[in-house]
Amino acid sequence: NFMLTQPHSVSESPGKTVTISCTRSSGSIAGNYVQWYQQRPGSSPTTVIYEDNQRPSGVPDRFSGSIDGSSNSASLTISGLKTEDEADYYCQSYDSSSLWVFGGGTKLTVL
Amino acid sequence: EVQLVETGGGLVQPGGSLRLSCAASGFTFSVNEMNWVRQAPGKGLEWVSSISSSGTTIYYADSVKGRFTISRDNAKNSLYLQMNSLRAEDTAVYYCARAPSPWYFDLWGRGTLITVSS
Is B111 in Cβ contact with A102 (below 8 Å)? Predict the structure, then answer.
């Protein structure tokens, strides 16, 4: 079984760019797709990135996803930060042994 | 409108049972794999269970295996979670989630809160 590790929190100013990492403990990060979910306070999660780097319709192109085999990690990058981006962000991946695995979540503060 | 609406939450004593329902609308429920995902108060997301579109393939997280049963009724566009032998650590908001592909969720309900306490 594998785990996904995220930083507990990150903060950045409006208009800046922030990157949230998600490191896979075992197995290749490239072996299974990584997704990212946004959860604003008091709301249910929504998908902002799926299949490593795909954006659902309606998600602005300020959100982008990538994977890095050398660090065995995935990243969510948000550019042109807005106060509305303040939320918890969760990475998620899947394999046939562990099934659906979520990272612990990262609290993004836009200040 | 495309949506998932969970019902059935509430307060239950340890060892008790509860049945959650999730009503789907605005999309073809019968072709989608469906899941339950939970979130303990102040904690992260935890996948609970999955059921294939036909209901023939089912998976459970180790934390609920043997106690929870997932099912669906495609004629009623509904997903269910029967929860038995409930424990304090099952206290959480339970979300119904659609999986358009086996590896991710693209639609979530608003969730229903289960509190297990005496």
Answer: no
